[in-house]
# Entry
Amino acid sequence: MEVDMLQLTPKLDEAAKEALYQQLYRYIHGEIMAGRIPPHAKLPSTRQLAALLKISRTPVTLAYEQLLADGYLISKPRCGLFTTELGICASQVQTKAEPPADSPRRSYHAVPVDSVPFDFGYGSVDVRHFPMTKWAKLMTQCLSAENHYSLLYGDLQGEAELRAQIARYLHQIRGVRCSPDQIVIGAGTYHSLDLLFQLLKEDVKTLALESAVNDGVKALLAQYSFAHEPLRLEDDGVCLEDVANSKAQAIYLTPSHQFPYGMTLSSRKRAWLLDWARRTGGYLIENDYDGEFRYDARQIPSLQSEDDNGRVVYIGTFSRVLCPSIRLSYLVLPPALLDRFLTKSNSYDQYASPIFQKTLYLFMESGDFHRHVRKMRALYKHKHDVLLQALQEHFSPDDGTITGTGAGLHMLLRLHTEQKEEKLIEKALRQGVKVYPTSAYSLLFAPSVPPTILFGFGGLSEEEIREGVKRFAQAVSN
Amino acid sequence: MEVDMLQLTPKLDEAAKEALYQQLYRYIHGEIMAGRIPPHAKLPSTRQLAALLKISRTPVTLAYEQLLADGYLISKPRCGLFTTELGICASQVQTKAEPPADSPRRSYHAVPVDSVPFDFGYGSVDVRHFPMTKWAKLMTQCLSAENHYSLLYGDLQGEAELRAQIARYLHQIRGVRCSPDQIVIGAGTYHSLDLLFQLLKEDVKTLALESAVNDGVKALLAQYSFAHEPLRLEDDGVCLEDVANSKAQAIYLTPSHQFPYGMTLSSRKRAWLLDWARRTGGYLIENDYDGEFRYDARQIPSLQSEDDNGRVVYIGTFSRVLCPSIRLSYLVLPPALLDRFLTKSNSYDQYASPIFQKTLYLFMESGDFHRHVRKMRALYKHKHDVLLQALQEHFSPDDGTITGTGAGLHMLLRLHTEQKEEKLIEKALRQGVKVYPTSAYSLLFAPSVPPTILFGFGGLSEEEIREGVKRFAQAVSN
# Structure
């Protein structure tokens, strides 16, 4: 059945503090919960509803997207959006509708409500260059009859041959020094971090961290009872004075390419932090999430490579260099933590599929992986340069400052304007351009910080980058 | 370098309370920690060491296996066993050597130290019948160019089409009633349980559980601060009086085929427990780990199918019906918990690979999965019957009682003997037969319970089952 549009009568106030899409979300959610929109009802398209309510399509799109992400709607390809039974079930437990927070939730739906042609998401990678044929061939090889052991449980720590390849690879590209036995394979960065926090909770009461972190990390930390001490960020990394004043037993860092702000931790600060760890017995957690990708002349090796005292825990992932859906990551544990992992090893299960682990091992052993990394580095460097050039073309130094360049898969544009980040993003979305805020990642209550927009370029082609930036520039100049 | 065998001088006492293999483990571990056996040293083979020490190969095998599992040794195919650097690293932090506990640790090494030809492991499945060609073909299909979205992150809750297939399948075979939106996909049972415990910890202070649980569950629980109340087990399930006397807000159960003891929770007790949950607002956690496999006439549907009050959480896995290395499992959440999951969904990452999820979806959609389940059910029923017959042939009712039959992939033999479980297992291993104890799973300090041996039959052929039981019977009669 189709929802009778004339029954949809939200009271929307464009002048209100709450953004339009949040008001609309709350209205539709309320109608669903009250049963006035029953399950399996087809909702009007964004165009129809926008026309009815006399607002732009953007807040409708955002509200629908949030309802989809929250499970109240389901998208049926070529049919439209329908309500699920969740509203009825949920209404039985009287939940309070929570309007979507300011931070954008990771869009987990592969097919978005309305395709946003220019999505500068930071997690996106260029899957068009993923070596699908070769990967499929190796997976099939893993599944052959003589390999039937690979169909059973496998090594709790991760397959030994893969760990050996990873140790060699990390040493080669990041200077990491470890034996394969120090590596623990995981099913993605959050799994590896979760494992690590389990190991640390015995002796870490306070965790210091960069004052802006990825929302997934924030949420994971909420499950633990570590006290948090945010460390202010400077152009070359965390403020050392804040570290000196902290009571932390561990520090969480993204030293190669701070997320989200993109600065690189300087050599001077690295040396100081390693010394701090040595003196205090504290740990340094190095999340090197996009460490393969450095484009400028300064090759800065990992923090771990300079650690002579077993204080650094190194975390990396294959989600960027290969693709996220393989779900493979790794922890390099210093001896004391490795010992703890092994002693407690009955507590853990290996969540990463041994089939994919073996496939990746074969891929690395053949040399194809290293060729792929080189190819992707060159490709991403090129996209990086295209984005940088496009931003410079449309934004003079008076308009905005570009930061976080030279590494990784994203950079930032700090706009010299009074407009709020959220407003700029909404305007961009109206032009079919999806960019991302940074204020949501802050752990501090920052007063009027200039709006800083994050542009990820991994998932876009050169043309899309140029066109996207052009439209963005047009959108925000109005 | 090879270890000088003459330097290996453990003082072993066959009459001591501590088993030989535990004494030997402690000795070798001590030598490694003290640096008297350096890293990268090749150890003597089990045959050589057994001959030197004038003991049987079995305790040497067990001690080596434990050292391997603990990371002090590494196995180099066709070369032998070598010490790792772990001993040196570990010795720097002065760890106390913990001899292996009585419970056998899950052997995570696909190629065991010495191949044990007759391994009655409960987690093993018959991978010879895994539809490898079809699976490989579908995986390749998922990786095709038009499907490149599947290489990105996917749905946090798990791919919608797969959840729809699972809902339909569970309804068909287990009577589970749910919408696809109530399903959360996981990367194996422990991941799903971990997710569930995260959701429950808000309002569950005390968890009641069957008085014997799988050691993985035990270890997972150790990470949470629930108080535990063990419920005594009777022939038809948990003791209701214990439930009535408990303060628990949730009860963890394996109602279809108790692990490890194999009894099925009776209808009468199911009704009582569902009523208990309705009255108290408590949750019933139903781990239906081998629910597809029932062989007797009594088709007992899931507990969830009889739940009209949203109290039951249903957990299942594809590890048994397909294979463990795919790492796919599912939670069916009642509305209140689903709501909590969705509200907190930023806390979670999807650890199960979207590629495998999509592959499984295609496999289920084609009908091949259902055919596979039927085939495996028939195959396992046959093996079940073969094992039962073999046990009955070698053990009269005076010798032992066979329990836990009629379902799942294991059964038990309770022997009427003074010998200890551990001793019987060691004797069996000497004949190349690996069987499993049950006392290690108990949460209670059970005084002299008759030794109850677990036989898993999933991974063995008919001939192996017969020969294995024959050798076991011979071994324990001496």
In short: The CA atoms of residues 188 and 329 of chain A lie 5 Å apart.
